[in-house]
Amino acid sequence: MSTISYAVIGGGINGLAVARQLLLDYPDAKVSLFEKESSVAQHQTSHNSGVVHAGLYYAKGSLKARLCRRGVKLIREYCTVNNLPYDPCGKLVVALNEVEEKRLQALYQIALDNEVPKVKMLYGDEIKTVEPNCIGIAALHSPETAIVDYGVIAQFIAQEIVELGGSIQLSSEVHSLTNENGKVTVTLQSGVEHAKQFDYVVCCSGLQSDRLAVSSGDIKTPKIVPFFGQYFVLDDQYTREVKGLIYPVPDPEYPFLGVHFTKRIDGKMTIGPNAFLSAARENYDGKGFSFKDISDYLCFGGFWRFFSAIYPPHYVSPKRCSASRVLLTRQPSTFLRCAI
Predict the structure, then answer these.
(1) Tell me, what's the pLDDT at 10?
(2) Which of 52, 171, 284, 319 has the smallest set of CB atoms within 10 Å of its CB?
(3) Residue 56: which of 73, 41, 69 has the closest Cα?
């Protein structure tokens, strides 16, 4: 019986996890992972807040809720077994007025539905027992919400893949996939002379996944529209002012969780993110610019429908604008930008 071969496209944490699981499930299989960069986890995996969300926001029974709770268990176990940093620093979602408190009660019910452990509501001065410098009329406390370093986890998974007999091919950008006679041909950007055939291919190509789909003969939608977020890093003397994670109650008018305090696994404390339409897809320092990426979304009707829904022409909120302006004009000692 011939050996079954698998290709995984993309060396972020998703692609790495898929390749690892294939090797665990099918030890005799040939598994090859293709990554366009010179090392793994160079994109979203190493440019995020590092929060292991507990499941406070996703409707009961939804796929997101199930994946979130299952993911927490798996990542906690993986970090514990392999002695990787995992800090259950806890999280507060804080309401500042009665409208937000009503939304917070709904989040609390979702957390209970999703069996998030040890969640409870705090009121008034009870909040200070968790975060002494936090104020609000109510807060949802999730004491087991954790933080990790996904880049470190990804690097460890990559080592495990090699130890299990898998292959990681770096600096190998995939141009297209072609189905022929029961096989899938993986053609690299370097040319057809480097094309290889596999029985199965799993694509985890992140910010380039829509383009890989089109170059492989698929339709042009859905299309990725890139946004990026900016985080401030607090000066060291203020780091201990916040113990864990402090979030606002999400505003249903906006598709983001709002500006929040986020503890990092290295002990630093960040404030952010804001959210900007990005001038390039892989734009992690805020300086990236790509005519191709910009024209891609400006010529996409879905972008304009999204934009008009988020920023209707008649909507102006001086309160929101002034709050954003105060945050953005402060001069932090360290400035960090992350993709969201």
Answers:
(1) 98
(2) 319
(3) 69
